[in-house]
């Protein structure tokens, strides 16, 4: 262990000792204060004083100031052990407590008659448990953070039954659904809908085996009758896309001319609808204990400036909790007031550590509402934009057969490209236009058409976004590579000019890329929708190659902070002063002052997907990619300061109160009470999370990951892996050799793909962590 590390450990140990000593003094002074029945207050104080001195749980009965009632084991002014808590609205919890949180096994009941019996964690239904709704619905299985997640069986009030896998409150994975009329389905599910491969069996013996999408047959499938007759083909709700062959049973050649495959959609499936889930009126984690509200605050959380300059909003001071029990006015006796101030100064003083700069409030950067310059007539790239829009309209609108997701190897051939001439006067296949004559090239058109289908991009919407009446917007400055970026008016798509070498890399890895994004739906790598080239006629014969990608930050939320993270340190800092940083400024590794906390299920999925994506990029000899992260802060004060959440992280990495780990109270009400809204949340998109502020030491400016401060913020996160078209070519090898002479080889970006992948993952798994 280095001297510096040894000093950090000793400082941390001293801080822990100081914290424990301060807590013991607080408990010895205030451990006797409580609110009980007024008639019993005096005689109870002596008993509680003696028990408090022993620091052991004891049986208590409390009538709280707001009318709530608690009886059970009590320790350190909080429910701890077995206890019963009754809220004034009729909700009740009986079970295990730990430091005021529902933790362990218990039973939560609602006034409606609904109840949950099972495991709790930090106030949430989490683990194995049984929920019975007021109408008779019953779910028995696994839960994560109030949502069905894992394996479970649900019996619906109408008699239907689902037995299978769940994800974020909805059926997802493999499962069986049994209807009361005798029909049943066994197969894949997604977002509460039948989706993937599966078998539907009707009560009359008919069955369908094949692919499904959004609850109906879609793609290859076979419909069989009990007598052995079957129909096999491509299924679609659109009759024009439906095609197949009817095979009668035995040696008979007669076809059932009265049977129409569309009857499966119109008649056969009409009486087999999936029952919607019940909406819970209020969740156990939303039931706050009156214990945590200070009688001094008037229902508003305290706000103060700590001695190190950090704003602490909603941070509970040691004596706020206790004031709930004594019921006295501000101040109390002069002696108690002085002792309280001494303890507060002692505890707050722990925030100052030698070697850290002052931790001032974080302000949101200036918000730029419309990024980029609109390309209008007179702009130097106006004609190029017109050419691009004409070409896209021609490529996407060109008639083509229905694409199967199973592509032949020939579709990925580098020679698979289509040139189209666009004279100003127009041709039989191209419209007349005001621009100069140009040629248009589509690279591997079938592959990108299928990718758009795979990514569920509607062709009409795609054309409207890029080729509508609204002009594109050019970003203010080209990237480091010299490429220019353009945004569509609705922000859904980003267009990037490319070098010939990048085009070659993409074409080379296109088959592997296609297979990767097809297999891993939650992949974080950039989504590509089209690869094209415009060749201008005339003396210059200039070629402009460009790729169309999804815009990661297309959202109704304002993106307050953007980070481009690689895990290297050389040159990885923004050279702008704080006053010039805007919401569109891309910050880098050494600008990062947060670690990102994801809920357990999301964190595990994130780690798995980062590993898969990095292994794919390593196999394709790709390096110099980065994780682009966008943060929307949910709480901002009127003067532009970020407002920390009420939850703090202690030195052990655990939360110090029961604030929801991700969403504000209003968002919890809207989101968790309606699990269907989770469909909008995906890995890397619209993800509710928390970030914890970090600080770098003054004497360690190149420190990649700062020290956690415990100050947390509720955010909506966006992230994805970008710049995946740089292979480890001769130029990068020379760059590595040259910079390795001048700098630490581990600090530079240009390294071997295997080393790059390992370093990237190591860094990402340090700045992303599981919510405690």
Automatic annotation (TrEMBL):
Keywords: ATP-binding, Kinase, Nucleotide-binding, Repeat, Transferase. SMART domains: MORN, PIPKc. Signal peptide: none annotated. Pfam families: MORN, PIP5K. Its EC number is 2.7.1.68. Residues 378-768 form the PIPK domain. InterPro entries: MORN, PIno-4-P-5_kinase_pln, PInositol-4-P-4/5-kinase_C_sf, PInositol-4-P-4/5-kinase_core, PInositol-4-P-5-kinase_N, PInositol-4/5-P-5/4-kinase. Transmembrane segments: none annotated. It catalyses: a 1,2-diacyl-sn-glycero-3-phospho-(1D-myo-inositol 4-phosphate) + ATP = a 1,2-diacyl-sn-glycero-3-phospho-(1D-myo-inositol-4,5-bisphosphate) + ADP + H(+). This is Phosphatidylinositol 4-phosphate 5-kinase. It comes from Hevea brasiliensis (Para rubber tree). The lineage of its organism: Eukaryota, Viridiplantae, Streptophyta, Embryophyta, Tracheophyta.
